[in-house]
Amino acid sequence: MKAISLRLFTAVAGTAAALSFVPAGVASAAPAATGSAVVPAAPGAAPAAGLFRDGRPAPSRKAAKPSGAATSLVAEDGACDLYSDGTGEMCLWFLANFSNSMDDLYFNDGNLSDNFFRTPGAGLGQSVINNAESDWNRDTIFTAQVWTGLNFTGTSGVVPPTGFGNFNSTFVNNVESLQFI
């Protein structure tokens, strides 16, 4: 049995604890690769920012990526976090099977060009836009919706809560924006 370490921290804007379960000797915990993590989304326009597809308001924490330095202290810290309230991050890896560099995203982001792979390995420092091959939605509440175009346009697919895997041919190295729904 692998050893599990637990990392807790207090979020800058609140007191939510982040739980990262990382097997000893592994840079970031990830499930074994199995199948495709993306399910094609139902046709239709993207929901308005801050709204679920059915029009209900989404919690403000997930609605939009805030600007400023405080964001990087909580999200995009190089750990694929699951928070005590059940929300979590969408983690994207540079290569298939959760290998090499990873970036973790907590907020909706219409343009992934200003997000960078953060952990050691191939891809470190490269932009996330059109460079991700595998993913893990650590969130237990929200579905992560990925888009092939900027600002939630193009083809979309969903990664259900706690879903993971390699992107299929539509999305491999072809994700430009991310939205939690």
Kindly describe this structure.
This protein is mainly beta. It has a single domain (about 5-180), classed as Gamma-B Crystallin, domain 1. Helix content is about 5%, strand content about 30%. It has 2 helices and 11 strands; from the N terminus they run βββααββββββββ. The protein has a 4-stranded antiparallel β-sheet, with no helix packed on it. A hairpin with a 3-residue loop joins strand 5 (about 90-95) and strand 6 (about 100-105).
Count of separate structural domains:
1
**Biggest sheet: strands, sense, closure?**
4 strands, antiparallel
Low-confidence stretches: 1-29, 39-54, 65-73
Query: What is the assigned CATH homologous superfamily?
Result: Crystallins
Instruction: Evaluate the radius of gyration.
Output: 15 Å
State the distance separating the first and last CA atoms: 35 Å
Sheet/helix structural class:
mainly beta
Please give the count of helices: 2
User: If strands are numbered along the chain, what order do they take across the biggest sheet?
Assistant: 3-9-8-11
The CATH topology name reads Gamma-B Crystallin, domain 1
- Spell out the helices and strands N to C: EEEHHEEEEEEEE
**Helix content bin:** under 10%
Strand percentage lies at 25-35%
Which CATH first-tier class would you pick?
Mainly Beta
Mean pLDDT: 72
CATH architecture: Sandwich
Count of beta strands: 11
Shape: globular
